[in-house]
Amino acid sequence: MTPAPAIPPEVAEYLHGLVLGERPIAWLAVDAAQTLIAAGGALAAHGLDAIQSGHPAPEQLCFLEGLLPLATSPFRLQHVQTADGRAADLHLFVAGDRVWVVLIDSAAERSAAQRVQQKAYDMTLLSEREARLISELEAANVELKRTYQALEESRAELLSTNQRLAGELEEAANYVRSILPPPVAGPLFTADWLFIPSTELGGDSFGYHWIDSEHLALYVLDVAGHGVGAALLSAAVANTLRSEALPNVDLRAPAEVLGALNQIYLMEQQNNLFLTIWYGVFHKRTRLLAYASAGHPPALLVPSGAGSAAEIKLLRATEPVLGVLAGIKFTQHEFPVPRGARLFLITDGAFEIIKSDGSMLEFEEFIELLVASAPSGAAALPSSAPTACSWPGRTSPTTAASATG
């Protein structure tokens, strides 16, 4: 079948109506002197309803500047900005002694193109942000490697975990658990804990180790937020303390230790993450416990045989959280530890518990639970999160529960 040589009038009429209905069209006629001699169509839709015939066209139509006289006919420009930010496809062609200018509305096409362009820009920003985070983590791990060689084995794993945030949270959680100290049962003190992570990777960590033959360091920290970023910062701080990677700092002086950590882990250098921490040092000979805290819940000292919440000593401090402001001076406190006492180091997950009736457990209720469980050594806090240490004189093993909030 031989195709018809021209578009049938019915088809032409349909296409004409389709174009005019969806894309307003305006037309202009300009003579050889570049004077506007005629205009029509949907001028208002293009913001051109105020133009006047008999006046120079370029002075009224800025988008014609530099285009006239027309060097090539026909000539087309896409998404030209007309009045009031409108957009149109611009068609120019010569017919006889005049140049015809046809404007076909292209606002919808320009908006679609801008959306695609914005999405590409957003993806670029996301990639840059991810690359920046990876770079920061690399730098932090290199610094830790100098002072604690064992962290080198985990550096590649941590970086890989960060690169696969969506699919490897469990691997990161396993690493966090691996740096926790083992339970201790010795002649001087007994330590035990139960670490129960939440459904999401969090920023809680703790530890204890002998600084020398006379001084025992104990600490618990909580990085704000959840996820890989909080967990990695938590691990970095814990490893800094565990490996004693604070040059020219007396690890037996809690206030000095927190001051040094505050300068190293300023939130502006840690992806806006900050943390709370309680750090104490027990002196074996004098039985004095020196401690300092940065916005962390108080440690709870439970004397042997305590039967009421009033007998529990709250070892607290009033300094702000770690990493928010440079140059903070922390205060050191001291407290004598009686024999047989138990010291609980907790995070806020220990007492921020939703009870069966839907209400939140009050801190005073948590202390009452602690009093009830401490004398018997039972793990009576299934939803709480402390680290517990018992001192000489106890008659049963120490058991405590730990959960990140």
Could you explain how this protein is built, in words?
This protein has 405 residues and is an alpha+beta fold. It has two domains: 12-105, PAS domain (Beta-Lactamase); 183-403, PPM-type phosphatase domain (Phosphatase 2c, domain 1), CATH 3.60.40. Helices cover 29% and strands 26% of the residues. The protein has eight helices and 18 strands. It has a six-stranded antiparallel sheet with strand order 6-7-17-16-13-14, with no helix packed on it. Helix 4 (151-163) runs antiparallel to helix 6 and helix 5 (169-178) packs parallel to helix 6 (228-242). The longest helix has 41 residues, at 107-147. The radius of gyration is 36 Å and the shape is elongated. The N and C termini lie far apart (77 Å). The model is unreliable at 376-405 (pLDDT under 50).
Spatial sequence of strands, sheet with the most strands: 6-7-17-16-13-14
Report the sheet-strand fraction.
25-35%
Write the CATH fold name of the largest domain.
Phosphatase 2c, domain 1
pLDDT averaged over residues: 80
What's the CATH class of the largest domain, please? Alpha Beta
Unreliable stretches (pLDDT < 50, length at least 5) are 376-405
Helix content estimate: 25-40%
Number of domains: 2
Distance between the termini: 77 Å
- In the CATH hierarchy, what is the superfamily of the largest domain? PPM-type phosphatase domain
Question: Can you name the CATH architecture of the largest domain?
Answer: 4-Layer Sandwich
Topology as H/E string?
A: HEEHEEEHHHEEEEEHHEEEEEEHEE
Count of helical regions? 8
Radius of gyration, in Å, reads 36 Å
